[in-house]
């Protein structure tokens, strides 16, 4: 892991590969399980996968409390690294961050890939669309996140330091997304500002947030395509890494600078 | 030594229908309001009796649970502020990090203080982890919000020259100006429950009275010690009345009767921790290191091992018996002599404390037994407590 200093934040990031820049923004959980997918992407991209402030080993300044703050931090980071035509990929919570970036500025973006993203509210006030995973038993959390529960990590066997990181990631996710739960009520009204080609990737077996939510988002984005992934849950890049990586490569080729 | 009678106002009639969770997700169709009304009046009668017996009164609050039907700790106090005339009234207390509006808390406590003519003691509590879901309160910055609310409430109670402004991290008011102001000056005494040496030190640094619950023979000396040390370090005058210990108490004319009462009250300990594990470990409620243990799947074990006998044997709270609970210092029970002896030994072991929080009602103990328990305590044990200052 490397460090990228932006303002007062020293961002821990996995940086690997060469080629067109690809910024990958991770979700609530299972970062370690996504590393093989990131290395696979690095075959064709220069992958930058930061740990959000409060997650992993990136310390969060106390004032930084909203997903909008993270979005500005990464827009600053793209300026600082002078990256252009960036393929911005966000998964789950990271998809929410990616959307908040895109509605602020697409100046350095060449395409947006949203994988089972959170961040939006479409339904009625008494119809939750994002499952409250913090109110589920450990067994149910896995069933909601994975099409094949055998692909989930076994927390009974991983080491203490890794488990502490899991706990820190959950704490950070709660800090940013506790209420309203994992969404920004006004974000859907600004989606027209995300004027870049988009690919909306969705695990067909996702029970955290259903494919219909992704389809709805696809309609609201300009120039977006919906790609369901069979046999995958909330993290298709863990369950079907090759399919997702290939789709991102094809999307990048379709949208060359 | 001051004694306080405490009851959780449990709705125990539902317990037989509950299994793996007594909290958070249980449907309220299991609550019969007619039975509940009788229970409320019964518990209030027991507290009102305390005014005659010279035992102070303590309430608490929990949410979405059959173990405690007191969901607003100041509501029984509002009734008792007028029904009683002499004893002091401790609400321990208000979950100020879970309440949206600290100004409302300051108003409620101030109004109670005035009605009771200065008999209110105000508790501010972090709240157990299972309170997070009912309050939808963010667990990741809970203590930050707790201390901001604490500071704002005290400033609101002690500012008497018109409105002031508060633009904090969590709370925003352009014009804070509470009426009435409290009866006691500068404000009613402040309490908080603590369960660790770290929290005890935080309270000591601010001169807040601490109440410890379920810490028993092994953990209590360290917590009280941390309080005394920090108070000294901060140059605060330490007073035994900064320390309170909660025990379950069963007094009887015979040892058997006292133990039977304690056994019934112990149903509080046996049911209180029964909750689906995900609600026992909300993200950020404890430091990542501790949370990691819980994620590994030992959350229930971690909570359970907090209770232990004096030689360190872990006690399972769901099956604890009177003998082990006495050994662990969680229960004082038997004849008035037994209770006094156990209490005195515990008092000496932990270096003394100024308040005994007496759970004199809990679980399935009947009204008649509760009245007899409280009466015997007040006649036979209370007079001896003057020895302890």
Layout of helices and strands:
The complex is a heterodimer of chains A (257) and B (389).
Chain A: E1 2-6, E2 9-16, E3 20-25, H1 31-41, E4 45-50, H2 67-81, E5 86-91, H3 93-104, E6 109-115, H4 138-145, H5 160-177, E7 198-203, H6 211-220, E8 224-229, H7 236-239, H8 241-254
Parallel strand pairs in A: 3-4, 3-5, 5-6, 6-7, 7-8
Antiparallel strand pairs in A: 1-2, 2-4
Helix pairs in contact in A: 1-8, 2-3
Chain B: E1 2-6, H1 33-53, E2 56-59, H2 74-83, E3 89-94, H3 102-115, E4 120-124, H4 132-135, H5 142-158, E5 164-167, E6 172-176, E7 190-194, H6 197-206, E8 209-213, H7 216-233, E9 243-251, H8 255-265, H9 267-272, H10 277-280, H11 288-304, H12 322-327, E10 331-334, H13 336-350, E11 355-359, H14 367-381
Parallel strand pairs in B: 1-2, 1-11, 2-3, 3-4, 4-7, 7-8, 8-9, 9-10, 9-11
Antiparallel strand pairs in B: 5-6
Helix pairs in contact in B: 1-14, 2-3, 3-5, 6-7, 13-14
Q: What's the main sheet of chain B like?
A: 8 strands, parallel, barrel
CATH homology superfamily of chain A = Alpha/Beta hydrolase fold, catalytic domain
Shape descriptor of chain B reads globular
> Could you give the count of β-strands of chain A?
8
CATH topology of chain A: Rossmann fold
Summarize model confidence as the mean pLDDT of chain B. 95
Largest sheet of chain A, described in full? 8 strands, mixed
Query: SSE order of chain A, as H and E?
Result: EEEHEHEHEHHEHEHH
N→C terminal distance of chain B: 5 Å
Kindly provide the radius of gyration of chain A, computed on alpha-carbon positions and rounded to a whole number of angstroms: 17 Å
Physical arrangement of strands within the biggest beta sheet of chain A: 1-2-4-3-5-6-7-8
Please state roughly what percent of the residues of chain A sit in beta strands, choosing from under 5%, 5-15%, 15-25%, 25-35%, 35-45% or over 45%: 15-25%
Helix content of chain A: 25-40%
The total strand number of chain B stands at 11
**Radius of gyration of chain B (Å):** 20 Å
- Count of separate DSSP helical elements of chain A: 8
Second rung of CATH, namely the architecture of chain A: 3-Layer(aba) Sandwich
- Identify the strand order in the major beta sheet of chain B: 1-2-3-4-7-8-9-11
Helical coverage of chain B, percent range: 40-55%
């Amino acid at each position: 892991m490397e460090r990228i200093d932006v303002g007062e934040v020293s961002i821990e990031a996995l940086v690997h590969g060469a080629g067109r820049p690809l910024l990958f923004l991770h979700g609530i959980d299972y970062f370690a399980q996504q590393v093989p997918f990131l290395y696979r992407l690095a075959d064709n991209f220069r992958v930058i996968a930061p740990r959000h402030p409060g997650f992993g080993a990136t310390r969060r300044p106390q004032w930084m409390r909203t997903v909008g703050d993270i979005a500005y931090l990464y827009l600053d980071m793209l300026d600082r690294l002078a990256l252009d035509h960036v393929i911005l990929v966000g998964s789950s919570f990271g998809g929410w961050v990616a959307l908040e970036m895109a509605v602020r500025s697409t100046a350095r973006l060449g395409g947006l890939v949203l994988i089972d993203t959170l961040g939006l509210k479409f339904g009625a006030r008494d119809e939750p669309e994002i499952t409250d995973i913090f109110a589920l038993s450990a067994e149910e959390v896995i069933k909601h996140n994975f099409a094949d529960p055998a692909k989930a990590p076994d927390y009974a066997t991983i080491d203490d330091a890794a488990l502490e990181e899991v706990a820190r990631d959950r704490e950070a996710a709660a800090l940013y997304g506790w209420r309203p739960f994992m969404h920004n009520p006004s974000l859907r009204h600004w989606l027209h500002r995300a004027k870049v080609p988009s690919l909306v990737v969705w695990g067909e077996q996702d029970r955290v947030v259903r494919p219909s939510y992704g389809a709805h988002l696809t309609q609201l984005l300009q120039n977006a395509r919906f790609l369901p992934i069979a046999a995958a849950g909330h993290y298709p890049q863990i369950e079907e890494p090759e399919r997702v990586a290939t789709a991102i490569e094809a999307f990048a080729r379709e949208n060359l600078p | 030594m001051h004694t306080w009678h405490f009851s959780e106002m449990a709705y125990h009639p539902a317990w037989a229908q509950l299994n793996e969770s007594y909290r958070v997700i249980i449907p309220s169709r299991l609550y019969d309001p007619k039975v509940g009304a009788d229970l409320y009046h019964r518990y209030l009668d027991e507290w009102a009796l305390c005014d005659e017996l010279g035992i102070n009164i303590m309430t608490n609050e929990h949410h979405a649970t059959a173990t405690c039907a007191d969901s607003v700790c100041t509501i029984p106090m509002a009734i008792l502020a007028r029904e009683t005339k002499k004893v002091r009234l401790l609400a321990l207390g208000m979950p100020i990090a879970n309440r949206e509006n600290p100004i409302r808390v300051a108003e409620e406590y101030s109004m109670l203080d005035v009605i009771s003519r200065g008999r209110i003691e105000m508790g501010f509590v972090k709240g157990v982890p299972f309170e997070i879901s009912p309050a939808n309160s963010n667990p990741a910055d809970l203590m930050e919000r707790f201390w901001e609310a604490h500071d704002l409430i005290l400033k609101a109670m002690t500012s008497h020259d018109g409105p002031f402004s508060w633009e904090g991290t969590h709370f925003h008011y352009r014009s804070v100006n509470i009426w009435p102001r409290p009866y006691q000056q500068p404000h009613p005494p402040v309490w908080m429950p603590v369960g660790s040496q770290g929290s005890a030190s935080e309270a000591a640094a601010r001169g807040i009275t601490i109440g410890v619950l379920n810490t028993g023979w092994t953990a209590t000396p360290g917590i009280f010690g941390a309080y005394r040390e920090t108070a000294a370090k901060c140059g605060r005058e330490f007073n035994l009345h900064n320390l309170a210990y909660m025990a379950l108490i069963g007094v009887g004319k015979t040892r058997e009767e006292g133990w039977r009462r304690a056994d019934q009250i112990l149903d509080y300990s046996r049911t209180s921790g029964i909750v689906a594990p995900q609600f026992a470990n909300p993200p950020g409620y404890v430091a990542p290191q501790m949370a990691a243990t819980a994620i590994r799947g030992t959350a229930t074990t971690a909570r359970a091992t907090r209770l232990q006998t004096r030689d360190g044997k872990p006690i399972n709270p769901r099956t604890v018996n009177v003998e082990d609970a006495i050994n662990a210092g969680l229960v004082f029970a038997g004849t008035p002599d037994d209770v006094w002896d156990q209490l005195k030994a515990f008092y000496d072991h932990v270096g003394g404390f100024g308040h005994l929080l007496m759970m004199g009602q809990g679980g399935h103990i009947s009204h008649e037994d509760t009245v007899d328990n409280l009466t015997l305590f007040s006649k036979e044990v209370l007079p001896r407590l003057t020895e302890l200052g």
